[in-house]
Write the structure tokens for this entry.
Amino acid sequence: MTVELDSTIGRMIRRRGAYANSSTKFKVGSCIGALLVLLAAGNQLFGSAGEVDIASKRLPPLTDGHLLGTDHLGRDLLSRLLASMGWSFSIALLAAVISLTIGTTVGVLAASSTKIGRTILTRYIDLSISFPELILAVTIIAVIGRGFLPLTLTLGFVSWPHLARVVYAQTLGLWTREFVLAAKLSGVRPMRIILSHILPGLRNTLLVMFAFIFADLLVAESGLSFLGIGALLGDPSLGNMLADGRRFIFSSSLLMLLPCIAVILAVTSANLIGDGLSSRSKNATR
Amino acid sequence: MSVEGVEVKGRVVLEIKDLRVTFPLGSDDQPVEILRGVSLQLCEGGVLGLVGESGSGKSMLVLSILGLLPGRGRISKGSILLDGEDLCTVSAPRLRDIRGGSIGTIFQDPMTSLNPVRRIGSLLVETLRRHGSIDRKRAKAAALEALREVGVPSPQERIRAYPHELSGGLRQRVVIAHALLNEPRVILADEPTTALDTTTQLQILSLLKMRVKNASVLFITHDLGVASELCDDIAVLYAGRVVERGPTMQVLENPRHPYTAGLIAAMPHFMRKREPLKVILGEPMRLNGVVTGCAFATRCERALAKCQTEDPFLQSADGLVHVACWNQLETK
Amino acid sequence: MTLHSEKLSPPPATSGVRWWGNSFVRVILGRVGQLAVLLWGVSTLLFFLLRFAGDPALIMAGDNATSEFVDEIRVQYGLDRPLFVQYFFFLWHAAKLDFGYSLASGLPSLDLVLAQLPWTIKLSGLAIMLNLLVAIPLGAWLGQAPERRTRNAVSSLVFILQGTPGFVTGLLLIQFFAVKLGLFPSIGSEGTLSWVLPTLTLTAFLAPRLTRVLASNVAEAMQTDFVRTARAAGASESQVLVRHALPNALLGTAALAGSQLSYLLSGAIITETIFAWPGLGLLLIDSVRTLDFPVVQASVFVVACFVFFVNTSVEMLFRILDPRLKQRTK
């Protein structure tokens, strides 16, 4: 629903505003995101996960070469934080890849199949969306256990229906477009059409969804770990750090505030990237 | 009378003087002029057709009369006088009184210009009650009457309908009824038939012709045929400026501006079956900077050296037709 | 007369009664069918997940059980029979709403779940109301003129809030209001004051999303032709917002309602655990930690039913409210 002002002029006015906004969002988001990822990756390569040293536990910042002090087990808080970020980001990233793969496959299949297949798949997608992801994840983890791999697989498995629905709607739209119809009429096989027309057409949507899913899964991972049903006890995870921080909420609030800030920054930057990308691609197709 | 003057038939109701509208669209938000000094006069009971291609600023003219320019558009110069009252300077509440009161507006697309989640009746009643102190019951009766007058069949039922339950033609009738509710002095009709199919177009046109007898109409269209049906006068807009203006018959039969002539030649005509349609070469002007000389010069076959450097102004040889061109076509 | 010769669309409204009845019955029947499928699917998933986890008899018997005791349990629960027999056995019990006894407390697991459910419903209901009270005015205000400076700043704030996970909000609220100021209790459910922080946490979880969606819907509606029509008919900016743009934008959030509920329940789990709120979420997490499978099953079953009923009623509500949906019944 767009206003047909004076067509050309109106379009120019709308596009300028939206574009300026979306490109700042994208820039700010990717700057913060890149910084966080670089820090985490740098620590993974060159830093340490923080040695346990009960003697020097919960030191205040800037003591004994600990920039941010130490936690309740005497680990350097900064390296612990960076290691946790690396751990949590990796899970969210891998799970998002799994989710994206399953979701795209199911969505495209649903939109490209016969009427019966379509009905079954869309019903399935709708039902799974209505069921709370986190509860499903909790149940599965109860059975298959905690830790890096189970968590990644579970999160990847529970989060794809949303994506599948978006992909489904978009693919349905693409199938009615002239260039796809033309390919269909000239006898190109459906599989080829999907590979050469549908998937490229979905690219922008998938990029946007990837950013949002990453954000959601990061929240889910740290939430589950915070509740004690995600990461294992010793794993460096933002959720674990938060749970630890909570125990010392009365004495040293830094232990809790730091991972809070890390989570907020990471999620917000992913959201910014997603938002920026989505309004940018909306403008491009308008 | 000045060169900008026009032969006056009746009392002037709406007068637009040297209207300039700018938008900050250029690089570094440089203001770009969308309307570059438009002067028009609308006489009592007259119908003035405003013709031009898309991007020429037709709709922006309507929106600036209503004070509804989108985004950061501004009226940078000029005045819009409604019965002597300058709409550019009146207070906001007064302007709201005038919108929907003295000025009724019909927009282009009836599919989108009615709120999909409001019943037809509630919209009509709301507008009626905003501009006059009448109770709900009388307002509803008036709304029914208004629907009947624009030829909506069984208005008793339609008044409870939602827009999506009506056909395009019926919706445009509702839009017209809505615009005419408070017996406006001036009606702004922004391509009211463009979005309709041809048969419905004719019905709506004849309805407009019938119903707007008492009001003055500014009828915007890109269809010269429609304009010739309905309008007493025609003004041709190109790149935010009136390039030719005069009584309909004179302008259409004897265009003096090359652009007007081009528009007429590009019109399909069923008497001249086998002739290919003429096209105006080039693209419509891009709105991104200062224009030197005549904006049409780059597309004009008759352009002189003078046209590239000096901006032509509206002038008239006979006091009827005004043309802004250095190298006018000969009168036949 | 030629003016009347347009093709008439079917007369609206008055002849709607019969049609209404039909469509509603059909929709509800379809819904009941879907519920059956959902419950079957959830039960099946649970059953096979459970088998996958290991020998249930071993889990039920506990760590130090003798092998005789394990065998006894195996016979008692029918675990010695073939898998598909067990499966139908399980389905049959699920259909009778019999999920067995909690391994931790020995009480019927469904009773345990149903006892906790009202706490979750009350907390969620409160949060939803607060959510609507905050998000609708805020979203409308932000969407009215999103480019203004103050609103831009507020939007950014809402954006950051949206990126703040529920448990982080909860922890920060505890840190500030319970630890620093000592105004409200940080855990438990006793007394009116203890409702404050959980409700705020859950609202902070819900409201930013709704606000942002509503704001963007309102902003879009403000650009539509029908809003221009309203303005051209003399409506003031507040009338335009409240009478023309907002109704449209609110109905546009209908699509969000379903996912919002599953979002709410996810939020409730975490909020309840943080604040030790005796609701369904806390029960579920506790039973997952202690591997109390009958309770997990009963909770998941109840959640599925609950989500389903709320979603269906919300959908019906929007169907009644939105004239465009009314006509487009599948």
Summary: DSSP finds 14 helices and no strands in chain C. Chain C has a mean pLDDT of 80. The longest helix of chain C spans residues 16-53.
